[in-house]
Amino acid sequence: MGEDVVIIGAGQAAAQVAASLRQGGLHGSILMIGDEPHLPYQRPPLSKKFLIEGGAPESLALRAQSFWRDQDVRLVLGTSVGSVDVRQRRVLLHDGREICCGTLVFATGTRARALPVPGVDLPGVFSLRRIDDVRRLRPALDSARRVAIVGGGYIGLEVAAAMRSEGREVTVIETEARVMKRVTGADMSAFFEAKHRVRGVDIRLGARLTAIEERSGTLVVHASTGEPHAVDVVLVATGARANDELAAAAGLACEDGILVDEFARASAPLVYAIGDCARFPSRRYGRRLRLECVQHAIDQAKAAAAAILGAGEPYDPVPWFWSDQYDLKLQIAGIMDDHDSAEVNGDPATAAFSVEYRRAGRLIAVDAVNNARAYMLGRRRIAEETGDGAR
Question: 391: pLDDT confidence band, cut at 50, 70 and 90?
């Protein structure tokens, strides 16, 4: 006997689509498959509070075990999927079990981007995507004095801030000419670079990691610029790639993510994809987007649940993100990567200001530091200026 809905993945998006299906009135069976042994949990704290304070994995759980039991959502955890037949909607687990379903949802998320660099598999070199990554990394950090972070994006800088708060020496190696280049503009990059430098972080821009080697219990980091650098721990934080191989092998259309329409439907009937692994069309921004953020995972999961239940509406959000570094809260609304003008509002010296990004006169993104009002108003204006009436 098959399942009515099978969800591959057990992260934020998977948890939300299951909960929303029940809330929307689905009475059929729901099965969620996760390759980690943990209940669906929050990931943002992994590079922030959970890294610093630790705690039990259950402290990150989105819902208690009792919630899933009460909602009659069956969880198969610590088990990975080997293959999928999307035509027959059959899922084959690595342990040999075969599961049939009526509707299939891919919520497979992302994984740390691998670096083709000698030495990245040495003991003392880590990535940070899962609870178990933190559980391995934290003991190494406890005995470390010097930490190298490869990558100057959100995660890299959040960990840098956490390590400096603990008094450790931190070096950030970034290939681009500025930090957080993929997600923010030059003014905001310069602000955060200066804040990290004044707190003692050694930021090396335009530097590409070329090798890591072990010498008498110490890791030596080699980059394309500067002298080799001896450290105790290396964190590779060079971004993530979509877990779309399973979908691609099943014949679904993929392009750095599983391609879906505005209702989260993939390229086969009764198959959906949501969250970090999905690339969806945005009329608002005139192209397909693949977003890696909590709110997108939640909202697209809700949209997919509605579509599965026959009441869907096109999904085209104003994306939003956040990052906590030291006493700085960066909130971002919109996508700024093809803006043609940027305007700073307020004085960066006060550490409470915003930057507005426009394209052809329309507001497409806002970055705000310690300024929730600018962020909220900006998000509302972006929705108005990039909505259907503005096109």
Answer: very low
User: How many CB atoms neighbour CB 56 within 10 A?
Assistant: 8
Q: Two tokens at 63?
A: 């819902």
**Residues 55 and 236: beta-carbon distance below 8 Å:** no
User: Which pLDDT does position 226 carry in this prediction?
Assistant: 81
327-390 matches 114-238 in CATH topology: no
Q: Is 327-390 a domain of CATH 3.40.50.12780?
A: no
| CB-CB contact of 285 with 118 (8 Å) | no
Enter the tokens of residue 199: 């707190």
Encode pLDDT of 159-190 as tens digits: 999 999 999 999 999 999 999 999 999 999 99
Sequence ranges of the domains in the chain: 3-111+241-308, 114-238, 327-390
Beta pairing, strands 287-289 & 278-282 = antiparallel
Angstrom CA distances, 59 to 41, 66, 69, 70, stand at 9, 15, 18, 20
Chain center to CA of 317: 17
DSSP-derived pairing of the beta strands 30-34 and 73-77: parallel
Q: Supply the DSSP symbol for 207.
A: -
At 81, give phi and psi (nearest 5°): -95, 130
Element (H, E) at 104: strand 98-106
Alpha helices in 127-178 (DSSP H): 131-142, 154-165
Could you tell me if 320 and 379 are in contact, meaning their C-beta atoms sit under 8 angstroms apart? yes
CA 96 to mean position of chain CA atoms:
30
- The pLDDT tens digits for 222-243 are 999 888 999 999 999 998 999 9
Pairing of strands 81-85, 73-77: unpaired
Strands 341-345 and 240-242, sheet pairing: unpaired
Please tell me the pTM assigned to this model.
Answer: 0.94
Segment 102-118, tens digit of pLDDT: 999 999 999 998 899 99
In which element (H, E) is residue 23 found?
helix 12-23
Q: Are strands 218-223 and 229-231 parallel, antiparallel or unpaired?
A: antiparallel
298: which 2 tokens?
Answer: 């939640």
Amino acid at 146: R
CATH code of the domain occupying 114-238: 3.50.50.60
Is domain 3-111+241-308 classified as CATH 3.50.50.60?
yes
Tally Cβ neighbours within 10 Å of residue 197. Answer: 12
Contact 237, 128 (CB under 8 A): yes
